[in-house]
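Fill-in record for Gliding motility-associated C-terminal domain-containing protein.
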Amino acid sequence: MRLVYIIGLLALCLGALLKPTVSQATHVRAGEITTRRLPGSSLTYLITLTAYYDESPKGRDASLSARDNPICFGDGTSEVVLRSGRTFINGNTSSVNSYTVIHTYAGPGAYVIGAQIVNRNEGTLNLPPAADSDDISFYVSTTILINAALQVNSTPVMLNPPLDSARVGQKFCHNPAAFDVDGDSLAYRLYQPQQGFINSCRSRIIPAYLDPTQFSSAREDGGTPDTFTIDPVTGDLCWDAPGQAGQFNFAFIIEEWRNGVLIGEIIRDMQLTVVDQPNKRPLIAGAEICVEAGTLIQQAITATDPDGQRVIIRGYGGPFNINSDGLPLPADLRIPPEYARLINGGVSLAQPATVTFSWQTNCNQAREEPYDITLKVNDVPPGRGTVSLVSFATLRIRLYAPSVKNLTARPTATVAGRAIQLNWTAYSCGRIVNTGAGLDTTKLIVYRKEGCTTVDIQPCVTGLDPSFGYQQIASIPYTATSYVDTSALRRGVSYSYRIVARNPGIGNNGGLSVASTEACLELPLLAPVMTQVTVDSTDTQRGRITVRWTRPIGLTPGDLGAPYQYRLQRATGLAGTDFVNIATINTTLQAGVADTVYIDRGSSVSALNTTANAYRYRVEFYYTGTNGQFTRLDVTDPASSVRLAATPSQRQVALSWQANTPWSNDNRTHDIYRSRSGPTGPFNKIAEVRVQGPQTYVFTDTGNDTFLADGNTSRILTADSSYCYRVMTRGQYADPKLAGLAPIENYSQVLCATPSDTTKPCAPQLRLDSLNCANLSSESLCGQVSFTNKLRWTLTTGPTCDPNVVGYKLYYGRYSQDTPAVLASIPAPTTTFDHTNLTTVAGCYYVTAVSRSGVESLPSNRVCNDACPAFVLPNVFTPNGDGKNDLFVPLACPRFVESVALIVFNRYGSKVYEGTSPTLAWNGKTTNGADLPTGLYYYQVSVRYAVLDRDAAPQVLKGWVQILREGVSMR
């Protein structure tokens, strides 16, 4: 959503009263508002209104007299701002008036800053009515977003003044040469000129504004339709082509984006004069270049003129550090320390005309967004009366931070084990930036991947694309020239390294450098290699695991100093790191000595619980150093035992297993063993499973035996038996130098499991002793307040049902709309239940059967009982206090009444009583408690009954009742 829509609901300075200072036509040609936040903790902004005036004899006085102008700040306040500068440009035919003010905002938000100049130029053709266009005010606005994340932010500035002319039938283009010192992304879109309301901060699009294409006939090349467009990326605004001489106004918006968020918009309103003459516009070519920061750019720019006339080439853009009025940019908007130059620019040149864009770049200027240099050429027609025409092009410069140079890698060792040391030349482009939230410095990001493969990294592409496979392993200060990598390095594996510099900056300035060249290294195999960790015995106290390894590959007995030593270490868990030494084996590496196998039985201090735990092993290798002491050379990659897990289900057991080893068990056949006799066996192989990857180390035992060489043990698995399993894995090293080692086979621990049985019983058949309302007399259930529902059911059977029923669950819902909830659990063989102490017989029931395995059947049939309501009223009562017939109550034996609402009217239709109660007992008084006289009264009674339907409508009874009081005559 565009920011202009976001702020559309904000208040626009409705209370300001702004007095115009000029009453005649002001001859303003164009203008815009720019802002920049000043350093510090307060939300203080420098706001500048830039207005371009026509300095013709008719407009000079208006320009000179515009000494002040009102500015609305978008927060409900405004101020009349004195002119801060007046500069003549474009051969003194135009002037730039500047109005600058400092304003502090109270807090974060989106603010629309606006300013109006009372009158536009007269005779503007597309601002109807053209003859009176000077009665329309000139209005521009800028939207800024203030929040903590943006820190210091400046809007872009427009460095190319909008003062060019066009010719009928020729394409005209304008480029504002917008420059954002923060490196934010800019996007462009067309808009329409606005007008302000006198004495107000409000504005609107000028009614009946006419698009310039309504004044076109055809494009410059003769084609149709004619166009009026703006390039959203470069900002080239082009009209192809004007078809009528005259004066035209149009506007466009420059959007400012940071990290995908729209943070501001500037509107430029400008005027164009179109002439009808034979002069043809000159042509100029742009270019795109990409260079490393620190490069001296010398780019030739060539322009031509179809009429062979002399031309003047100019350049606009941030690297020139020159504002649109030709004066230096403010210090905080400059790109220090070097200025770009356009050699031979700004002077009249004969054909062919060539200038040179020269810029000695430096590290501080590197950024993610390109620098756009707007190139402008205008012809120099001979004699007077012919208007100079212009063309534009863009020189786009991508300036990236240099790479880290001369990266190398070599093997080394640390106390923690094997390592690779990286070295490089000191980085030449480090910097420290105050981002507004503190100091930020250049960091060097170290990346690594396994394998040394050619990656085609283009010179202008920064960072490292994730598709290259590199992972970040460190972020270090840019002053460093070395780094030691000790993280999870494996012998015999090649590692590729690259470094990328991350340069700090505000907005999109700074960014990543291109990646360094690759440094690749393969660690030599000077350590033993683990080859087996297999569980021999599964026990909580006396488990046993056999561990095997090789002698150091690549090391012969004459290398280093003898004797040598292995130190076997163990940790608990598949990924355990709490390694403790469990065995020390001295060796001379002579042939025939069994020095690379160890059977781990635990110890009295540390029992080996292979039932509950997996275990992980590694071997440290030592040689005798020059001082006669054992010195560690290296350590193996750890290898764990195979850990088996089981998940019982309906008459089957699902197995899964895993191991954490330096070799791979993928793409190998694993053997599954089962015992029906307990954890000590005997075990039969029942399946061979080909596993592909970590998610395929699974097997489901349904009772079948698919390996028959050791006998067929196929049989249905039952919930009454326990079955024990173990798995043997096969593996191989991926490294070709280790692939020839003997097949790596390892057994898991023994694990026992019992299948479940989810077969359901058949659903019972339920009966309910219910009331027969038709057979009830008026005295039935008279005075009864407690009721009982009697339920009976029968268990049904079937070939697919579990007959082992141990109980029943009875469900009850008071209303037919209710979801019944458990009322009672009844053990078998009982098949009856009396639901007692009910206030009404209304309710619904169903019953389920429960098997020995705890599986519940489907619900039985649903049975319901309903109440038999009864409620009859008398037509006379005598509320005279004699204790006889003093209350208006139902006749004997009302049934299942929940509540009664009574309304009483006198003979004239006036309500005299209204009340609600669980039962009806009216004493003949008014609602206010006054006795009613003897007479005839009419009533309406609404009775709600305790029936099955929660939403049942009340019974409404209407009738009359006679009140008789002693000593009162009747009329």
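KEY FINDING: The longest helix spans residues 57-65.
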